Automatic annotation (TrEMBL):
This is Putative RAN binding protein. It is found in: Cytoplasm; Nucleus. It comes from the Eukaryota. InterPro entries: XPO4/7-like (IPR044189). One of its GO terms (cellular component) is nuclear pore.
Amino acid sequence: HNFVNQIANCADVLQEILKTLFEIILFEDSSNHWSLGKPMLSLILLSDEMYAKLKSQILSSQSADKHPHIL
C-alpha cells in the first residue's frame, strides 16, 4: 500500500518524465533510443491512464498527417 501511495503522490513528476522520454524518442535523432525503452515501459505500466492522457496530448500537438508515424 505504501508504494502505491508514493506513486500516486508523484504522478505529475512521473508523467513529466515519461513525456520527456517520448519527446526524445519522437523528435530527436539519436542512436540510443533503445536504451530508453525499459524506463518508458516501467512508467507506462505504472499507470495506463497516465499513458493514455500523454499519448492524447502528444497526438493533439502534432498535425494529423504525422499521426500514423507517431502511433
